[in-house]
Design goal:
about 850 residues; alpha/beta; 4-stranded antiparallel beta sheet; elongated
Length: about 850
């Protein structure tokens, strides 16, 4: 039995008399849980409530992948399991002790006895539930809201619902508001019909809030997924696998049950028809009711009588039914799948909701309406939309209607730090259909713990920044030729960067020294200029042009040998990052301009690893949006969007912040990643073929010069020595190659032409990557051996050891570049074949691209 001192710790019983305390203590039993013990599991019968007297517990849920995540921590004085005590609802969460816990438990039998001995207890409990502020999110929040609604149904002084109007400016929106006002003045049952996400539940709330029942009980039951009767296991209790279990769950939810009435009923339970007496019950997805439950509901609508499962005693209540469905109910009646009499009884009035895509003029008004709600809910500043953001919203397809719009806006409010929602805050490309990878590295405990460390990978900047500063100063002020910094840059740094793409995609950007340096310049600044919208829209073309130009400059000015050229290239990129950061803020350079960033982003789809969020968890379970709040992601990404394929820098901030553990670090083959792309971009295909063309042009001219082919065909050798002549030849071959790939994609319709080029262009990525890698790997083979000698000279101890052996050892690797070029060609052909099997790539362009890739691969074998 619990003591008076322990009772005083519980808010429910503070201020009661000694006599009442003695009565209460007799009805509670003490329970002790050791660290790691589960108090109960989700789905277990709910027939008691717990109050924590000492210790702490965590409330957890299981996400769509089977991983448990914590949604609340409860301490001394907290209580949980109240739904089980009040109405017999099954447990909706797992509760686990994280310390030694002393708890007081009261079951339904003791509760009923206590309410007789101490009537004030029931009033205290339901009023405390009704007034409790919902502070947590997700399914736990839904459970808490449900407990408040049930509590409100049990008290006499009920608070009226507060809903205003259905937002919109079209004639249809005005008409639907008129219909809602008209129905609200009646007591008729209502049938609301509309596609998924058309706000059927919201319309139901509007009808109630505007009517005479707005202060009376209001509950909702999802008929397609009724509360379970027992602990769910796939083999026995799944609704999908066992129709009889679903039927019993539906009947129990509506009518309630007595202990032992079925194999699943272990305690008593009040049905919604009983709890919602005098009020309103919304039956969502009413078309999912089984024939038996349809008959029970029809009988109730005709007689206002029902019986709990397990007893014959009839109970009476008067509940208004608002049914919702996404189906054609007349068709279901004709098919014999729905009771005709029940349908007639339910549709005293009918409200039909049309899809959002058919009333786009309502989108601005709806967006502003929900923005205001989310702004107040999250205490954010956002109050309006930029023109570009609104254009993006109006132009979207909205396959799941208003539900999708609300999710997009809630994420946008979380991501926005100012007063205006920009296009960057609108995440429309959530990857809803994804094949799960066989290996999620975050599920390996050691890897997961390491990557969740706040120092990973940002601490690497303490290495990369000094290294990069050394390269700039030494290439600018050290020897012009045989420069240690220059040799390291081209023979070690570039091969390392390209290899890092294979393992981590754009991960280098997470510890990029240029980003760290530019961020240091603006550390104390808070106000910046708005970045031009035209640059956001066309910045990728600027990045493409800049990268290709830098590549050409490297070869025209012999940057591999001339340290000054290398230093100026580094200085140009660092200066661009600093100036952009000073004007527009952090990461703007990385997002929209950086030529290296675009190269990394383009090749990132070839990486063996991909970080992404589970869209099922993100859309259906997450309401905190922790991965977006306070600019959590430096690139402004949501982990479930398409952009993560190219722009995610693997900083792992979202991994650390996501309480639902929805973020994966998957191991995928490149063709799997590319085949899963849903947003195909013409610009990225152009970049891929330009990269292949640049490699082909630069190495072909080098090979022709080395083999004196120019002299053999009477072309003056001075052409190669003239920078402008070399630049013209380089650009002509590159642009000619890109033009050829575009021409062979041609069909009679330009739209199909562009589509063919876009799909086929992605197939050139492996060839471009291996071609690029071969260029810098050759530098490692032929010049890497100089590094030790130059390092010893730099340190002033050049006479210590002989480096001839190292040079000869590296030269044996000359067989690798042709093999890598061949691998790139084979992978490009394989990827082209995969793309054709999945997308409408016309036969003639497909075969012509096969020929171009094959010939280019053969050329690479010769020139490398």
């Amino acid at each position: 039995m619990i003591s008076r001192e322990e009772l005083n710790k519980i808010p429910l019983f503070q201020g009661i008399s000694s006599e009442s305390a003695a009565n209460i203590a007799e009805h509670f039993s003490l329970r002790i849980f050791l660290p790691g013990d589960y108090v109960y599991f989700r789905g277990e019968p709910g027939n008691s409530m717990f109050v924590i007297l000492n210790g702490r517990v965590v409330v957890t849920l299981t996400n769509a992948e089977g991983s448990d995540y914590t949604i609340a921590t409860l301490r001394e004085g907290s209580f949980f399991g109240e739904l089980g005590l009040l109405v017999g609802e099954p447990r909706s969460t797992h509760v686990k002790a994280i310390t030694s816990v002393l708890a007081a438990e009261i079951d339904q039998g003791a509760y009923q006895a206590l309410t007789l001995d101490f009537p004030d207890f029931n009033s205290r409990l339901v009023h405390l539930l009704a007034k409790r502020v919902v502070k947590t999110k997700g399914q736990w929040q839904a459970d808490r809201v449900k407990s408040r609604e049930i509590a409100r149904s049990l008290v006499s002084n009920r608070v009226p619902m507060e809903e205003d109007y259905f937002p919109g400016i079209t004639k249809w929106a005005k008409e639907i508001n008129r219909i809602i006002d008209e129905i609200a003045s009646t007591n008729a049952n209502v049938l609301i019909v509309g596609e998924p996400g058309t706000e059927r539940a919201f319309v139901a709330r509007l009808i109630v809030s505007k009517g005479k029942r707005n202060h009376l009980p209001f509950l909702s039951l999802n008929c397609s997924n009724p509360p379970p009767l027992a602990k769910e296991t796939p083999e026995k209790w799944s609704h999908k696998d066992n129709p009889s279990v679903k039927e019993a769950a539906q009947e129990s939810a509506l009518c309630g049950h007595e202990p032992g009435s079925t194999a699943y009923a272990r305690g008593w339970r009040r049905g919604y028809l009983e709890v919602a007496d005098t009020g309103t019950l919304v039956l969502d997805h009413v078309d999912h009711l089984t024939p038996k439950v349809q008959a029970l509901l029809l009988r109730y609508l005709q007689s206002s009588c029902f019986s709990r499962i397990g007893v014959t005693e009839e109970r009476k209540s008067k509940v208004r039914i608002i049914a919702t469905t996404t189906e054609d109910m007349d068709a279901r009646v004709e098919q014999g799948r729905f009771n005709k009499e029940l349908l007639e009884a339910l549709r005293g009035r009918v409200v039909t909701l049309i899809p959002l895509r058919e009333r786009r003029k309502d989108i601005p008004a709806m967006a502003q309406y929900f923005l205001t709600r989310y702004k107040c809910k999250n205490r954010e500043q956002a109050s309006g939309f930029s023109e570009e953001a609104m254009e993006a919203l109006v132009g979207h397809g909205w396959s799941t209607n208003v539900a999708e719009l609300k999710q997009v806006l809630e994420r946008a409010v979380a991501a926005c730090q100012g007063t205006t929602l920009e296009e960057d805050h609108i995440f429309l490309d959530i990857r809803l259909s994804q094949s799960s990878a066989k290996l999620n590295l975050l599920r390996i405990d050691e890897i997961g713990r390491f990557l969740r460390n706040r120092l990973v990978p940002g601490a690497l900047q303490y290495i990369t920044v000094p290294f990069f500063v050394f390269l700039i100063f030494y290439t600018l002020f050290g020897p012009r030729e045989h420069n240690l910094g220059n040799v390291i840059a081209w023979s070690l740094l570039w091969p390392f960067l390209l290899l890092s793409i294979v393992l981590s995609g754009r991960g280098w950007c997470a510890y990029c020294p240029m980003s760290a340096i530019s961020n240091g310049f603006v550390y104390a600044r808070k106000k910046f200029l708005p970045f031009p919208g035209v640059m956001k829209k066309y910045g990728i073309w600027v990045g493409i042009a800049a990268f290709v130009s830098i590549f050409w400059i490297e070869h025209v000015t012999e940057g591999f040998l001339n340290a000054r050229v290398t230093g100026r290239i580094f200085l140009f990129i660092a200066g661009g990052a600093i100036i952009t950061a000073l004007l527009f803020g952090k990461r703007i350079w990385c997002l929209y301009i950086c030529p290296l960033g675009y190269m990394f982003g383009e090749f990132a789809v070839l990486s063996l690893m991909e970080l992404r969020g589970n869209s099922k968890v993100c859309v259906s379970q997450c309401e905190t949006h922790a991965c977006l709040i306070d600019n959590s992601c430096p690139m402004g990404l949501h982990p479930s969007t398409e952009r993560t394929r190219h722009d995610c820098i693997l900083c792992f901030t979202c991994v650390r912040k996501c309480k639902q553990k929805s973020v994966h670090l998957d191991v995928l083959l490149p063709h799997q990643r590319i085949a899963a792309i849903r947003s195909w971009e013409f610009s990225r295909s152009t970049f891929a073929v330009l990269l292949v063309g640049s490699v082909l042009a630069s190495q072909t001219l080098r090979w022709l010069g080395n083999h004196r082919i120019f002299s053999a065909v009477n072309i003056p050798p001075a052409l190669l020595n003239d920078h402008w002549g070399y630049f013209f030849a380089l650009s002509a071959i590159t642009i000619g190659f890109a033009a050829l790939t575009f021409v062979v994609s041609g069909t009679k319709k330009f739209e199909v032409w562009s589509q063919n080029f876009t799909y086929a262009g992605y197939a050139y990525l492996p060839l471009a990557f291996f071609g690029f890698f071969d260029i810098y790997f050759n530098q490692f083979i032929f010049r890497g051996g100089e590094i030790r000698r130059l390092l010893l000279e730099f340190l002033g101890i050049s006479n210590v050891m002989n480096t001839a052996a190292i040079l000869s050892n590296l030269s044996i690797l000359q067989f690798l570049p042709p093999l890598l070029a061949l691998a790139g060609g084979v992978l490009s052909l394989y990827l082209l074949r995969k793309l054709r099997s999945q997308y409408p790539l016309h036969p003639l362009p497909y075969h012509l691209h096969q020929v171009i890739i094959s010939i280019t691969c053969l050329a690479f074998l010769i020139i490398f």
